[in-house]
Amino acid sequence: MITSSSSSVRTGPCPAHLWIFSSIGKKTIVALTGIALILFVIGHLLGNFSIYLGPDAMNLYAEKLHDLGPILWVIRLGLIAVVVLHIYFTMLLWKENRTARPQKYIASDPIKTTVFARTMRLSGLIVLAFVIFHLAHFTVRVVDPSFQEMHTLLDGRRVHDVYAMVIKGFSSAPVVIVYVVGLFLLTFHLSHGIASLFQTFGITNSRIRRNYECAARVLAWALFAGYVSIPIAVLVFGLGKGVGQ
Ligand code: HEM
Q: Which option is the CATH number for 24-101+111-235: 3.40.640.10, 3.40.50.300, 3.40.50.720, 1.20.1300.10?
């Protein structure tokens, strides 16, 4: 005989659903998707460094990526899913925190934490806007439609001239300013984001945590220096001068 309690067990949420929407589940998902995005940012920078090896190296790297065909689309969809999950679960956590503390903080409360949380959301949104601009700029190529017509020969094959596109893109001071500001906010977001990973994963020893947080800031600023070096090398130091003009 099926009792009412056994039928409610059968129709209730499964343990995975309960865990995912628990506080720790949401924090873990934000942390894991954050780690995936950091790995992408590191990998993308290493690929972009091919610009310093010259046009053929950068175009070959871009061509190898495009040659992945359907696998590239799986990676792209995975990346979009990771971004959506990161934002969605961050918003759920924010809502949960607001519901748990509906009243405004009194003066003695840790103001630093609220300012920090608010800045993370704002910097996250601006980074998202920057990435959308970046995709319109270099992937969809609608910011400067002349990018669509840039082609070159690579081992006898007609390929898209990514090198010329990046050089032309960063020959414009306003565009470089947008990138430097976007990258600065990305660094700000990453440096606080990586540091709070250690809290999520339960590293409570304050000395160890301080060391990890320091390492997180060094990593975030090293990424900033690496990324910003490219537009600055083009605009200020004339990298690839004459290409794509
Ligand atoms: C100086 C900085 C950067 C340069 C020079 C750069 C360069 C490029 C180029 C050339 C492409 C197009 C590749 C192609 O389709 O042939 C691209 C795509 C992309 N970039 Fe960047 N990037 C920079 C910063 C960033 C940052 C900071 C992020 C993320 C936070 C980012 C995320 C992406 C994404 C998601 C794509 C699309 C990849 C795809 O086609 O699937 N980029 N980037």
A: 1.20.1300.10
